[in-house]
Design brief:
alpha+beta; f41 fragment of flagellin, N-terminal domain; Heat Shock Protein 90; six-stranded mixed sheet; 11 helices; 6 strands
Protein backbone atom coordinates (compact mmCIF):
# COMPACT_ATOMS: atom_id res chain seq x y z
CA UNK A 1 0.00 0.00 0.00
CA UNK A 2 1.04 3.57 -0.60
CA UNK A 3 2.12 5.53 2.46
CA UNK A 4 1.47 9.22 2.78
CA UNK A 5 4.56 11.39 2.92
CA UNK A 6 5.07 13.24 6.20
CA UNK A 7 4.26 16.97 6.20
CA UNK A 8 6.98 19.41 5.28
CA UNK A 9 7.14 20.61 8.89
CA UNK A 10 7.76 17.04 10.04
CA UNK A 11 10.50 16.53 7.44
CA UNK A 12 12.08 19.82 8.54
CA UNK A 13 11.92 18.74 12.18
CA UNK A 14 13.39 15.35 11.30
CA UNK A 15 16.20 16.92 9.24
CA UNK A 16 17.23 19.76 11.55
CA UNK A 17 15.82 18.65 14.87
CA UNK A 18 12.84 20.13 16.68
CA UNK A 19 14.62 22.25 19.25
CA UNK A 20 16.98 24.10 16.83
CA UNK A 21 14.01 24.89 14.55
CA UNK A 22 11.97 26.21 17.46
CA UNK A 23 14.89 28.27 18.74
CA UNK A 24 15.42 29.76 15.28
CA UNK A 25 11.69 30.51 15.02
CA UNK A 26 11.63 32.26 18.38
CA UNK A 27 14.74 34.24 17.43
CA UNK A 28 13.12 35.39 14.15
CA UNK A 29 9.89 36.40 15.93
CA UNK A 30 11.81 38.35 18.56
CA UNK A 31 13.94 39.97 15.83
CA UNK A 32 10.85 41.07 13.90
CA UNK A 33 9.27 42.50 17.05
CA UNK A 34 12.48 44.38 17.92
CA UNK A 35 12.69 45.77 14.39
CA UNK A 36 9.03 46.82 14.61
CA UNK A 37 9.70 48.70 17.83
CA UNK A 38 12.78 50.38 16.35
CA UNK A 39 10.89 51.31 13.17
CA UNK A 40 7.97 52.70 15.20
CA UNK A 41 10.36 54.83 17.23
CA UNK A 42 12.16 56.04 14.11
CA UNK A 43 8.86 56.93 12.42
CA UNK A 44 7.67 58.77 15.50
CA UNK A 45 10.87 60.79 15.81
CA UNK A 46 11.03 61.57 12.08
CA UNK A 47 7.41 62.61 11.68
CA UNK A 48 7.44 64.62 14.88
CA UNK A 49 10.56 66.50 13.72
CA UNK A 50 9.08 67.16 10.28
CA UNK A 51 5.80 68.35 11.73
CA UNK A 52 7.55 70.65 14.18
CA UNK A 53 9.77 72.08 11.44
CA UNK A 54 6.79 72.77 9.17
CA UNK A 55 4.86 74.67 11.83
CA UNK A 56 7.94 76.55 12.99
CA UNK A 57 8.59 77.72 9.40
CA UNK A 58 4.94 78.72 8.94
CA UNK A 59 4.92 80.76 12.17
CA UNK A 60 8.23 82.40 11.24
CA UNK A 61 7.00 83.42 7.77
CA UNK A 62 3.72 84.74 9.13
CA UNK A 63 5.54 86.77 11.74
CA UNK A 64 7.81 88.42 9.14
CA UNK A 65 4.96 89.07 6.68
CA UNK A 66 2.98 90.65 9.51
CA UNK A 67 6.02 92.81 10.21
CA UNK A 68 6.02 94.02 6.59
CA UNK A 69 2.29 94.66 6.73
CA UNK A 70 2.55 96.50 10.05
CA UNK A 71 5.41 98.68 8.76
CA UNK A 72 3.27 99.71 5.76
CA UNK A 73 0.51 100.98 8.00
CA UNK A 74 2.93 102.63 10.41
CA UNK A 75 4.68 104.40 7.54
CA UNK A 76 1.35 105.82 6.35
CA UNK A 77 0.44 106.90 9.85
CA UNK A 78 3.82 108.57 10.38
CA UNK A 79 3.42 110.54 7.11
CA UNK A 80 -0.10 111.56 8.11
CA UNK A 81 1.14 112.82 11.48
CA UNK A 82 3.88 114.78 9.70
CA UNK A 83 1.34 116.41 7.39
CA UNK A 84 -0.77 117.41 10.39
CA UNK A 85 2.22 119.14 11.98
CA UNK A 86 4.83 120.02 9.39
CA UNK A 87 7.77 121.37 11.36
CA UNK A 88 11.52 120.87 10.91
CA UNK A 89 11.62 118.86 14.15
CA UNK A 90 8.74 116.68 12.98
CA UNK A 91 10.46 116.23 9.61
CA UNK A 92 13.59 114.98 11.40
CA UNK A 93 11.48 112.56 13.45
CA UNK A 94 9.72 111.27 10.32
CA UNK A 95 13.03 110.68 8.58
CA UNK A 96 14.31 108.63 11.55
CA UNK A 97 11.06 106.66 11.72
CA UNK A 98 11.04 105.89 7.99
CA UNK A 99 14.69 104.77 8.09
CA UNK A 100 13.93 102.43 11.00
CA UNK A 101 10.94 100.88 9.23
CA UNK A 102 12.86 100.60 5.97
CA UNK A 103 15.75 98.83 7.78
CA UNK A 104 13.27 96.39 9.39
CA UNK A 105 11.75 95.57 6.00
CA UNK A 106 15.22 94.99 4.55
CA UNK A 107 16.04 92.59 7.39
CA UNK A 108 12.73 90.75 6.88
CA UNK A 109 13.30 90.35 3.15
CA UNK A 110 16.85 89.15 3.74
CA UNK A 111 15.66 86.62 6.35
CA UNK A 112 12.95 85.28 4.04
CA UNK A 113 15.47 84.95 1.23
CA UNK A 114 17.93 83.06 3.47
CA UNK A 115 15.41 80.52 4.70
CA UNK A 116 15.93 76.90 3.58
CA UNK A 117 14.23 76.59 1.23
CA UNK A 118 13.85 80.36 0.52
CA UNK A 119 10.41 81.80 1.14
CA UNK A 120 8.71 82.44 -2.19
CA UNK A 121 8.27 86.25 -1.97
CA UNK A 122 7.38 87.41 -5.51
CA UNK A 123 9.96 89.75 -7.05
CA UNK A 124 7.17 92.18 -7.92
CA UNK A 125 6.33 92.57 -4.27
CA UNK A 126 9.95 93.29 -3.44
CA UNK A 127 10.11 95.85 -6.26
CA UNK A 128 6.86 97.53 -5.16
CA UNK A 129 8.08 97.68 -1.59
CA UNK A 130 11.32 99.35 -2.65
CA UNK A 131 9.39 101.82 -4.78
CA UNK A 132 7.11 102.58 -1.83
CA UNK A 133 10.06 103.42 0.35
CA UNK A 134 11.67 105.38 -2.45
CA UNK A 135 8.52 107.52 -2.64
CA UNK A 136 8.40 108.09 1.13
CA UNK A 137 12.09 108.72 1.64
CA UNK A 138 12.17 112.40 0.38
CA UNK A 139 8.84 113.35 2.00
CA UNK A 140 10.41 115.10 5.09
CA UNK A 141 12.20 117.52 2.71
CA UNK A 142 9.92 117.91 -0.30
CA UNK A 143 6.66 118.13 1.61
CA UNK A 144 7.83 120.28 4.53
CA UNK A 145 6.26 123.50 3.12
CA UNK A 146 3.56 121.94 0.94
CA UNK A 147 -0.03 123.11 1.26
CA UNK A 148 -2.77 120.97 2.67
CA UNK A 149 -4.16 120.33 -0.81
CA UNK A 150 -0.77 119.17 -2.02
CA UNK A 151 -0.31 116.96 0.98
CA UNK A 152 -3.77 115.39 0.56
CA UNK A 153 -3.16 114.92 -3.12
CA UNK A 154 0.20 113.23 -2.38
CA UNK A 155 -1.41 110.83 0.08
CA UNK A 156 -4.22 109.87 -2.30
CA UNK A 157 -1.97 109.63 -5.34
CA UNK A 158 1.20 107.98 -3.93
CA UNK A 159 0.65 106.41 -0.55
CA UNK A 160 -2.85 104.96 -0.51
CA UNK A 161 -2.66 103.01 -3.82
CA UNK A 162 0.80 101.68 -3.17
CA UNK A 163 0.00 100.73 0.41
CA UNK A 164 -3.24 99.04 -0.64
CA UNK A 165 -1.46 97.11 -3.40
CA UNK A 166 1.30 95.98 -1.04
CA UNK A 167 -1.19 95.07 1.68
CA UNK A 168 -3.11 92.90 -0.79
CA UNK A 169 0.16 91.27 -1.85
CA UNK A 170 0.96 90.58 1.80
CA UNK A 171 -2.44 88.95 2.24
CA UNK A 172 -1.72 86.81 -0.82
CA UNK A 173 1.57 85.77 0.73
CA UNK A 174 -0.25 84.78 3.94
CA UNK A 175 -2.77 82.79 1.93
CA UNK A 176 0.08 81.11 0.06
CA UNK A 177 1.73 80.22 3.38
CA UNK A 178 -1.53 78.75 4.63
CA UNK A 179 -1.87 76.73 1.43
CA UNK A 180 1.68 75.46 1.79
CA UNK A 181 0.87 74.50 5.38
CA UNK A 182 -2.18 72.55 4.18
CA UNK A 183 -0.01 70.87 1.54
CA UNK A 184 2.55 70.03 4.17
CA UNK A 185 -0.20 68.58 6.38
CA UNK A 186 -1.44 66.45 3.51
CA UNK A 187 2.08 65.23 2.75
CA UNK A 188 2.61 64.58 6.46
CA UNK A 189 -0.59 62.53 6.61
CA UNK A 190 0.49 60.56 3.53
CA UNK A 191 3.94 59.92 5.01
CA UNK A 192 2.35 58.94 8.28
CA UNK A 193 0.02 56.54 6.45
CA UNK A 194 2.89 54.94 4.52
CA UNK A 195 4.90 54.58 7.71
CA UNK A 196 1.89 53.04 9.46
CA UNK A 197 1.49 50.60 6.56
CA UNK A 198 5.14 49.56 6.84
CA UNK A 199 4.78 49.15 10.57
CA UNK A 200 1.56 47.15 10.20
CA UNK A 201 3.25 44.95 7.60
CA UNK A 202 6.11 44.23 9.99
CA UNK A 203 3.69 43.56 12.84
CA UNK A 204 1.62 41.31 10.59
CA UNK A 205 4.75 39.41 9.65
CA UNK A 206 5.62 39.10 13.33
CA UNK A 207 2.12 37.81 14.16
CA UNK A 208 2.25 35.34 11.26
CA UNK A 209 5.66 34.07 12.35
CA UNK A 210 4.40 33.88 15.92
CA UNK A 211 1.45 31.75 14.82
CA UNK A 212 3.74 29.46 12.83
CA UNK A 213 6.16 29.09 15.75
CA UNK A 214 3.24 28.58 18.13
CA UNK A 215 1.86 25.85 15.86
CA UNK A 216 5.25 24.11 15.76
CA UNK A 217 5.58 24.55 19.54
CA UNK A 218 2.15 23.04 20.15
CA UNK A 219 2.94 20.18 17.83
CA UNK A 220 6.27 19.62 19.56
CA UNK A 221 4.53 19.77 22.95
CA UNK A 222 1.94 17.25 21.78
CA UNK A 223 4.73 14.97 20.53
CA UNK A 224 6.53 15.26 23.86
CA UNK A 225 3.28 14.62 25.71
CA UNK A 226 2.60 11.54 23.58
CA UNK A 227 6.13 10.31 24.20
CA UNK A 228 5.73 10.96 27.93
CA UNK A 229 2.39 9.11 27.94
CA UNK A 230 3.94 6.25 26.02
CA UNK A 231 6.92 6.11 28.37
CA UNK A 232 4.59 6.31 31.36
CA UNK A 233 2.49 3.47 29.95
CA UNK A 234 5.65 1.44 29.37
CA UNK A 235 6.85 2.13 32.91
CA UNK A 236 3.44 1.18 34.30
CA UNK A 237 3.43 -1.98 32.22
CA UNK A 238 6.95 -2.82 33.39
CA UNK A 239 5.91 -2.08 36.97
CA UNK A 240 2.84 -4.30 36.59
CA UNK A 241 4.94 -7.08 35.08
CA UNK A 242 7.49 -6.64 37.86
CA UNK A 243 4.73 -6.89 40.45
CA UNK A 244 3.40 -10.00 38.75
CA UNK A 245 6.89 -11.45 38.69
CA UNK A 246 7.42 -10.53 42.33
CA UNK A 247 4.09 -12.11 43.23
CA UNK A 248 4.93 -15.21 41.26
CA UNK A 249 8.33 -15.40 42.96
CA UNK A 250 6.62 -15.16 46.34
CA UNK A 251 4.24 -17.92 45.33
CA UNK A 252 7.14 -20.07 44.17
CA UNK A 253 9.02 -19.27 47.37
CA UNK A 254 6.03 -20.18 49.54
CA UNK A 255 5.43 -23.33 47.54
CA UNK A 256 9.11 -24.26 47.89
CA UNK A 257 8.95 -23.53 51.62
CA UNK A 258 5.82 -25.65 51.94
CA UNK A 259 7.33 -28.56 50.01
CA UNK A 260 10.63 -28.37 51.84
CA UNK A 261 8.86 -28.12 55.19
CA UNK A 262 6.76 -31.16 54.35
CA UNK A 263 9.82 -33.06 53.23
CA UNK A 264 11.72 -32.20 56.39
CA UNK A 265 8.75 -33.04 58.61
CA UNK A 266 7.46 -36.14 56.82
CA UNK A 267 10.63 -37.69 55.51
CA UNK A 268 13.68 -36.62 57.47
CA UNK A 269 11.72 -36.00 60.65
CA UNK A 270 10.06 -39.43 60.49
CA UNK A 271 13.36 -41.10 59.66
CA UNK A 272 15.05 -39.49 62.63
CA UNK A 273 12.11 -40.47 64.84
CA UNK A 274 12.53 -44.09 63.74
CA UNK A 275 16.24 -43.81 64.42
CA UNK A 276 15.46 -42.55 67.89
CA UNK A 277 13.14 -45.53 68.46
CA UNK A 278 15.77 -47.96 67.26
CA UNK A 279 18.31 -46.45 69.63
CA UNK A 280 15.82 -46.76 72.47
CA UNK A 281 15.24 -50.43 71.57
CA UNK A 282 18.99 -51.03 71.46
CA UNK A 283 19.32 -49.48 74.91
CA UNK A 284 16.59 -51.77 76.22
CA UNK A 285 18.35 -54.82 74.75
CA UNK A 286 21.61 -53.85 76.47
CA UNK A 287 20.17 -53.90 79.97
CA UNK A 288 22.73 -55.46 82.29
CA UNK A 289 25.55 -54.97 79.77
CA UNK A 290 28.69 -52.88 80.32
CA UNK A 291 28.06 -49.12 80.58
CA UNK A 292 30.36 -48.14 77.66
CA UNK A 293 28.03 -49.14 74.82
CA UNK A 294 25.00 -47.82 76.72
CA UNK A 295 26.57 -44.39 77.19
CA UNK A 296 27.35 -44.18 73.49
CA UNK A 297 23.77 -45.09 72.62
CA UNK A 298 22.48 -42.50 75.12
CA UNK A 299 24.56 -39.80 73.43
CA UNK A 300 23.32 -40.98 70.03
CA UNK A 301 19.68 -40.81 71.23
CA UNK A 302 20.24 -37.33 72.66
CA UNK A 303 21.81 -36.21 69.41
CA UNK A 304 18.87 -37.69 67.47
CA UNK A 305 16.40 -35.84 69.73
CA UNK A 306 18.19 -32.50 69.20
CA UNK A 307 18.30 -33.16 65.46
CA UNK A 308 14.59 -33.90 65.39
CA UNK A 309 13.88 -30.67 67.29
CA UNK A 310 16.10 -28.69 64.93
CA UNK A 311 14.34 -30.21 61.94
CA UNK A 312 10.98 -29.27 63.44
CA UNK A 313 12.13 -25.71 64.09
CA UNK A 314 13.42 -25.34 60.54
CA UNK A 315 10.16 -26.83 59.24
CA UNK A 316 8.14 -24.31 61.25
CA UNK A 317 10.27 -21.41 60.04
CA UNK A 318 9.91 -22.52 56.45
CA UNK A 319 6.17 -23.13 56.53
CA UNK A 320 4.28 -24.07 59.70
CA UNK A 321 2.04 -27.04 59.11
CA UNK A 322 -0.52 -25.41 61.44
CA UNK A 323 -1.10 -22.67 58.85
CA UNK A 324 -2.19 -25.19 56.22
CA UNK A 325 -3.85 -27.74 58.52
CA UNK A 326 -5.62 -25.66 61.19
CA UNK A 327 -5.66 -22.12 59.78
CA UNK A 328 -4.33 -18.66 60.55
CA UNK A 329 -5.28 -18.22 64.21
CA UNK A 330 -3.60 -21.41 65.57
CA UNK A 331 -0.49 -20.66 63.48
CA UNK A 332 -0.27 -17.14 64.91
CA UNK A 333 -0.81 -18.43 68.45
CA UNK A 334 2.00 -20.94 68.04
CA UNK A 335 4.24 -18.23 66.53
CA UNK A 336 3.62 -15.89 69.48
CA UNK A 337 4.25 -18.66 72.01
CA UNK A 338 7.53 -19.46 70.32
CA UNK A 339 8.43 -15.75 70.13
CA UNK A 340 7.71 -15.21 73.84
CA UNK A 341 9.68 -18.32 74.82
CA UNK A 342 12.62 -17.28 72.67
CA UNK A 343 12.75 -13.51 73.41
CA UNK A 344 11.20 -13.21 76.86
CA UNK A 345 8.92 -10.37 75.61
CA UNK A 346 5.34 -10.52 76.91
CA UNK A 347 2.83 -11.12 74.11
CA UNK A 348 -0.90 -10.54 73.84
CA UNK A 349 -3.00 -11.98 71.01
CA UNK A 350 -6.52 -10.78 70.10
CA UNK A 351 -8.64 -12.23 67.33
CA UNK A 352 -12.17 -11.26 66.32
CA UNK A 353 -14.42 -13.41 64.14
CA UNK A 354 -11.61 -14.81 62.01
CA UNK A 355 -12.85 -17.67 59.82
CA UNK A 356 -11.18 -21.05 59.89
CA UNK A 357 -10.94 -21.06 56.12
CA UNK A 358 -9.16 -18.16 54.43
CA UNK A 359 -7.61 -17.88 50.97
CA UNK A 360 -4.05 -19.10 51.06
CA UNK A 361 -2.53 -15.79 49.76
CA UNK A 362 -4.34 -13.84 52.48
CA UNK A 363 -3.39 -16.01 55.43
CA UNK A 364 0.17 -16.39 54.13
CA UNK A 365 0.50 -12.60 53.82
CA UNK A 366 -0.83 -12.03 57.36
CA UNK A 367 1.42 -14.70 58.82
CA UNK A 368 4.57 -13.44 57.09
CA UNK A 369 3.88 -9.79 58.02
CA UNK A 370 3.40 -10.71 61.68
CA UNK A 371 6.52 -12.90 61.51
CA UNK A 372 8.64 -10.04 60.11
CA UNK A 373 7.17 -7.53 62.58
CA UNK A 374 8.00 -9.79 65.51
CA UNK A 375 11.51 -10.32 64.17
CA UNK A 376 12.04 -6.52 63.97
CA UNK A 377 10.59 -6.11 67.46
CA UNK A 378 12.99 -8.67 68.90
CA UNK A 379 15.99 -7.29 67.01
CA UNK A 380 15.52 -3.49 67.20
CA UNK A 381 12.74 -2.24 69.47
CA UNK A 382 13.86 -3.21 72.97
CA UNK A 383 10.18 -3.44 73.94
CA UNK A 384 8.70 -5.30 76.89
CA UNK A 385 5.25 -5.96 75.45
CA UNK A 386 3.82 -6.85 72.05
CA UNK A 387 0.16 -6.92 71.08
CA UNK A 388 -1.07 -8.72 67.94
CA UNK A 389 -4.66 -8.19 66.80
CA UNK A 390 -6.43 -9.95 63.92
CA UNK A 391 -10.05 -9.18 63.05
CA UNK A 392 -12.25 -10.11 60.14
CA UNK A 393 -14.77 -7.61 58.79
CA UNK A 394 -17.19 -7.89 55.87
CA UNK A 395 -14.99 -7.91 52.80
CA UNK A 396 -11.64 -7.52 54.56
CA UNK A 397 -9.20 -8.97 57.04
CA UNK A 398 -7.23 -6.65 59.32
CA UNK A 399 -4.12 -7.26 61.38
CA UNK A 400 -2.14 -5.04 63.73
CA UNK A 401 1.18 -5.48 65.54
CA UNK A 402 2.03 -2.91 68.22
CA UNK A 403 4.92 -2.70 70.69
CA UNK A 404 6.10 -0.25 73.34
CA UNK A 405 9.69 -0.12 72.14
CA UNK A 406 12.02 2.71 71.16
CA UNK A 407 10.35 3.42 67.78
CA UNK A 408 12.03 5.15 64.84
CA UNK A 409 11.75 8.22 62.61
CA UNK A 410 9.67 7.91 59.43
CA UNK A 411 10.48 9.75 56.20
CA UNK A 412 8.02 11.65 53.98
CA UNK A 413 6.82 8.37 52.44
CA UNK A 414 5.97 6.87 55.83
CA UNK A 415 8.96 4.50 55.77
CA UNK A 416 12.22 4.34 57.75
CA UNK A 417 15.54 4.99 56.08
CA UNK A 418 16.97 2.24 53.91
CA UNK A 419 19.60 1.29 56.46
CA UNK A 420 16.95 -0.26 58.69
CA UNK A 421 13.83 -0.44 56.53
CA UNK A 422 14.44 -3.37 54.16
CA UNK A 423 12.23 -5.71 56.18
CA UNK A 424 9.42 -3.15 56.27
CA UNK A 425 9.90 -2.54 52.57
CA UNK A 426 9.38 -6.27 52.00
CA UNK A 427 6.23 -6.12 54.13
CA UNK A 428 4.87 -3.22 52.06
CA UNK A 429 5.64 -5.06 48.82
CA UNK A 430 3.96 -8.26 50.03
CA UNK A 431 0.83 -6.36 51.15
CA UNK A 432 0.66 -4.45 47.85
CA UNK A 433 0.85 -7.71 45.88
CA UNK A 434 -2.07 -9.03 47.91
CA UNK A 435 -4.07 -5.92 46.99
CA UNK A 436 -4.11 -4.52 50.53
CA UNK A 437 -3.00 -1.40 52.33
CA UNK A 438 -0.32 -0.91 54.98
CA UNK A 439 0.05 1.75 57.65
CA UNK A 440 3.20 2.23 59.75
CA UNK A 441 3.03 4.56 62.73
CA UNK A 442 6.18 5.17 64.75
CA UNK A 443 8.26 7.89 66.30
CA UNK A 444 11.30 7.86 68.59
CA UNK A 445 10.33 6.83 72.12
CA UNK A 446 6.68 6.05 71.29
CA UNK A 447 6.86 2.49 70.01
CA UNK A 448 5.74 1.13 66.66
CA UNK A 449 2.39 0.13 65.20
CA UNK A 450 2.03 -1.79 61.92
CA UNK A 451 -1.52 -2.19 60.59
CA UNK A 452 -2.60 -3.84 57.36
CA UNK A 453 -5.89 -4.48 55.65
CA UNK A 454 -6.42 -7.13 52.97
CA UNK A 455 -9.54 -7.48 50.82
CA UNK A 456 -11.51 -10.72 51.07
CA UNK A 457 -13.68 -12.14 48.37
CA UNK A 458 -17.08 -13.53 49.33
CA UNK A 459 -16.56 -16.87 51.08
CA UNK A 460 -18.98 -19.34 52.62
CA UNK A 461 -20.01 -17.81 55.93
CA UNK A 462 -18.04 -19.53 58.71
CA UNK A 463 -19.41 -20.27 62.10
CA UNK A 464 -18.98 -17.05 64.11
CA UNK A 465 -16.00 -17.08 66.41
CA UNK A 466 -16.45 -15.30 69.71
CA UNK A 467 -13.94 -12.48 70.20
CA UNK A 468 -11.34 -13.53 72.66
CA UNK A 469 -8.05 -12.54 74.11
CA UNK A 470 -5.65 -15.44 74.17
CA UNK A 471 -2.53 -14.96 76.26
CA UNK A 472 0.42 -16.35 74.38
Amino acid sequence: MWEMAPPKGSRLFQTLGRRPVLRAGYAVVIGVLVLSVVEAYRIQVSLSGQHEEIYRRYVDEEEHINTLRRNLWQAGNFVRDFFIRSTPEQAQTLRSQLQTLQAEDADVLQHLAQMSPPSPVPPGVVKSLREFWAVLDPVPITMLHASNEEQYDFIQREIVPRRGELYAAMLDLSDADKQRLRDYDRQFAESNGRAAERLLAMLGLGVLLSLVVAAFSLRHAETLEQQADRHYAEVEEAKRELQQLSGRLLEIEEEGRRRLSRELHDEIGQTLALLQIQISNALAALQGQPSGPREQLERARSLAERTVQTIRNISVLLRPALLDDLGLVPALQFQLEDFQRRSGIACEFVEESVADYLPDPVKTCIYRVVQEALHNCEKHSGSSNVRVTVRQRPGSLEAEVADNGCGFQLNAKGMPDQSRGLGLLGIRERVALAGGSLEIDSSPGRGTRIALRLPLEAQPQPAPRVAAEVPA
